[in-house]
Design goal:
Layout (H helix, E strand, L loop, with lengths): L1 E8 L4 H12 L4 E6 L5 E6 L6 H10 L3 E3 L14 H18 L15 H18 L1 H12 L5 H24 L9 H33 L5 E6 L2 E6 L8 E4 L9 E5 L2 E4 L1 H4 L5 E3 L4 E2 L4 E2 L4 E5 L7 H14 L3 H41 L4
Antiparallel strand pairs: 1-3, 1-4, 2-3, 5-6, 5-7, 7-13, 8-11, 8-13, 9-10, 9-12
Helix pairs in contact: 1-10, 3-4, 3-7, 4-6, 4-7, 5-6, 6-7
Length: about 375
């Protein structure tokens, strides 16, 4: 068995991550799989004799997501259309559609926009702009639906597509000079706008959490000053071993855990304890990797290497916490796995009943004269 770790782009909710886990878990060559929505990390334990990592990536791609060994910065997105700019265009388009529909009686619209067909055509153009801003809902939603792993994007895509298609039918009737009561383009725009706004707030919170973890990982230098035969030698931190004598200069991070053996200094241990006031360290005091020397140089003796340091253990615990799920998180994944299909089933049932009821009414009108 081989264990591989990689990153997945395109996930927006717990239904996405749980859907990927279920899809990969059904494969005979996959023994264990885990997907973390926050960090976009995933791991899979698989039989290398039956499948390769590329096969797993292809399976993930079928679900509408992008998997790669290194983190991605959404390669499919043009640099011009940032998430905030997309949200702004969606807001402007939605306001335009609302002005042409719900607020039209209150506004002094030009005469040609009061004609049903012209009004609907203007709404259609603005709606297409909003749908383009939220096109990821349709790309991911329909791909997941086709792969029988529907998620929240699938609900948004189906709901807005139904309203859009029905509005197109009404627009065609308006072109044929038939009487219509209005369009449903504003429903498409408002739904997309609110969901996009919620996703943006959620993504902002995720980015802050990931940034905090990345800052914690950067609380160390890549090199250290090792004292050997009375000379200071710059070496890689990875090469340090227990018992090495190190010199820590002011403004430098403590490279590994150890004991201060010469000098005294105030150490900023806020990354460990949260205490902003530096702590005075004297000979015999313990110092920890990732803490900051604030004022005077000192000598220390390493008691652990980099892999065994307190900072490394904290990062390891964070990685394990990301890869595992609490019972409530597993329950949420199970609920998300059945929630979307149930909503689609209820909507389909409502549509069938609506069509059947309309057919019964037409049949009743046809038979009424005969009675």
């Amino acid at each position: 068995m081989t264990k591989a770790q990689f990153y997945i782009e395109g996930m927006t909710c717990s239904a996405c991550s749980s859907g990927i886990e279920r899809s990969l878990g059904r494969k005979a060559y996959v023994k264990e799989v885990g997907v973390d929505l926050l960090s976009k990390k995933a791991f899979v334990v698989y039989d290398e004799s039956q499948a390769s990592l590329e096969d797993i990536f292809k399976q993930i791609s079928k679900l509408g997501y992008t998997a790669q060994k290194k983190p991605l910065k959404d390669l499919l997105e043009p640099s011009f259309l940032t998430p905030n700019l997309k949200l702004l265009f969606a807001l402007l388009g939605t306001l335009g559609v609302l002005c042409l529909s719900m607020f039209a009686p209150l506004l002094p619209l030009p005469l040609f926009l009061k004609a049903p067909f012209n009004n609907g055509l203007a709404q259609l153009i603005l709606t297409l702009i909003v749908m383009h801003m939220g096109r990821n809902f349709y790309i991911h939603g329909f791909k997941a639906l086709w792969a029988r792993q529907p998620n929240m994007d699938s609900l948004v895509a189906l709901g807005t597509s139904a309203a859009f298609c029905y509005s197109l039918v009404l627009l065609f009737r308006a072109y044929s000079h038939a009487n219509i009561e209005g369009y449903y383009f504003e429903s498409v725009c408002v739904i997309l706008l609110f969901v996009m706004g919620g996703k943006r707030v959620e993504q902002s919170s995720k980015d802050k959490a990931v940034q905090a973890m990345q800052e914690l990982m950067q609380e160390h230098n890549t090199k250290a000053l090792k004292v050997q035969e009375g000379q200071d030698m710059e070496v890689e931190i990875d090469s340090l071993q227990k018992g090495d004598i190190l010199r820590v200069l002011p403004g430098a991070y403590v490279p590994v855990d150890g004991v201060l053996i010469e000098g005294a200094s105030e150490i900023d241990e806020s990354m460990l304890s949260g205490e902003s006031v530096p702590v005075l360290k004297k000979e015999g005091s313990q110092v920890f990797a990732g803490t900051l020397n604030t004022n005077t140089p000192f000598l220390m003796q390493a008691t652990h290497n980099k892999a065994q340091s307190t900072l490394a253990q904290i990062l390891d615990l964070i990685a394990k916490a990301q890869g595992s799920k609490a019972p409530i998180a597993r329950l949420a994944d199970q609920v998300a796995g059945v929630f979307v299909p149930i909503v689609i089933a209820i909507a389909s049932l409502a549509f069938i009943v609506w069509v059947f009821k309309g057919a019964l009414k037409r049949l009743w009108r046809c038979l009424s004269p005969c009675w």
